[in-house]
Automatic annotation (TrEMBL):
Species name: Actinomadura yumaensis
Domain NADP-dependent oxidoreductase, residue spans: 15-314
UniProt-recorded name of the protein: Aldo/keto reductase family protein
Presence of keyword NADP: yes
InterPro entries per record: K_chnl_volt-dep_bsu_KCNAB-rel (IPR005399), NAD(P)_OxRdtase_dom_sf (IPR036812), NADP_OxRdtase_dom (IPR023210)
Family the entry assigns: Belongs to the shaker potassium channel beta subunit family.
The entry's keywords: NADP, Oxidoreductase
PANTHER family xref list: HYPERKINETIC, ISOFORM M (PTHR43150)
Coiled-coil boundaries: none
Gene3D superfamilies, per database record: NADP-dependent oxidoreductase domain
Length: 333
């Protein structure tokens, strides 16, 4: 395993992080989830990502039990706040009240007295941003949070938060957690340049595009039984955007490149995200330990400029079937 600084902060994280969205507490039994965490630890992963909303808080509980008894200083535990965790009017968002109550719940479920990275899971348009930033800063000063980040924020939202932190003397955001893959490159235009300038690192999720970049979805064929595309609890709506026959055919054309490099399709996809110098880590999930062990082989892989060009040539302009997004791959930063 290789390690990278999280942006310009002093925190080092494993360049492959283990995430438990859609798995722990929902799709797989706890014994299987704990076996996946054990495999991640065996492979050198030290960074674990979760959120209070995953599996209605159960994902944090499972992760906490899986990590219990380990040397806390050797782990980087990341969680998030924003989405509803209750039915009350203050059980969501980024108000001081919800942030304060959410961190206490997350710490209890995770079985720890601090988290290494606490992330705003989305931007809250209903709460003054200075209130949110002050609430996060309070948690840093109390020692309950070491670093603060965001997830899926737009460049202008990140920029506003940084300006407020600087003006008020508050702790700055050090990271963003966006979706990023060969098929979803929206951060390259604005978020990455801003982050490079301001010292933020990206912890990217879905580097294999919900499994599409493994090559298991074939054009003209029904999705494999038991795959994410057939499981309404596991992101089936999200993956539909990638299932056009044209796009699936282009993904299949990546296989010769992976074969030449001695990589699986998934390893190639994960390694591709790690070639971006602004990416601090790529998050992988798993329902079986062998998936973890396979994905970790992407750590340390270097893809030269010619390979990156060939990948762009194969995929061409990537048009996602999402009414709010049309993505054309830009030159890599």
């Amino acid at each position: 395993m290789e390690f990278r600084h999280l942006g310009r902060s002093g925190l080092k994280i494993s360049e492959i992080a283990y995430g438990n969205w859609l798995t722990h507490g929902s799709q797989v039994e706890e014994d299987a989830a704990r076996a996946c965490v054990a495999a991640a630890l065996d492979e050198g992963i030290t960074t674990f990502d979760t959120a209070d909303v995953y599996a209605a808080t159960r994902a944090e509980e499972v992760l906490g039990r899986a990590l219990k008894g380990l040397r806390r200083e050797g782990l980087e535990i990341c969680t998030k706040v924003y989405w509803p965790t209750g039915s009350g009017p203050n059980d969501s968002g980024l108000s001081r009240k919800h942030i304060r109550e959410s961190i206490e719940g997350s710490l209890r479920r995770l079985g720890t007295d601090y988290v290494d990275l606490y992330q705003a899971h989305r931007f809250d348009h209903e709460t003054p941003l200075d209130e949110t930033m002050r609430a996060f800063d309070d948690l840093v000063r109390q020692g309950k949070v070491l670093y603060v980040g965001v997830s899926e924020w737009r460049a202008e939202e990140i920029e506003r938060a940084l300006r407020i932190a600087d003006e008020m003397g508050l702790d700055r955001i050090v990271s963003n957690q966006p979706q990023y893959s060969m098929l979803w490159r929206v951060i390259e235009e604005e978020v990455v340049p801003l982050s490079e300038r301001e010292g933020l690192g990206q912890i990217v999720w879905s580097p294999i595009a919900q499994g599409v970049l493994t090559g298991k979805y074939k054009p003209g064929a029904a999705p494999p039984a038991g795959s994410r595309a057939t499981d309404e609890r596991g992101g089936a709506d999200m993956i539909k955007r990638y299932l056009s026959d044209d796009l699936l055919a282009r993904v299949q054309d990546l296989r010769p490149i992976a074969d030449e490099l001695g990589l699986t399709m998934a390893q190639l996809a994960i390694a591709w995200t790690l070639q971006n110098p602004n990416v601090s880590a790529a998050i992988v999930g798993a329902s079986r330990p062998e998936q973890v062990r396979d994905n970790v082989r992407a750590a340390g892989v270097k893809l030269d400029a010619e390979v990156l060009r060939r990948i762009d040539d194969v995929l061409g302009p990537v048009v996602i079937r999402d009414p709010s997004r049309t993505i054309s791959p830009a030159q890599r930063p």
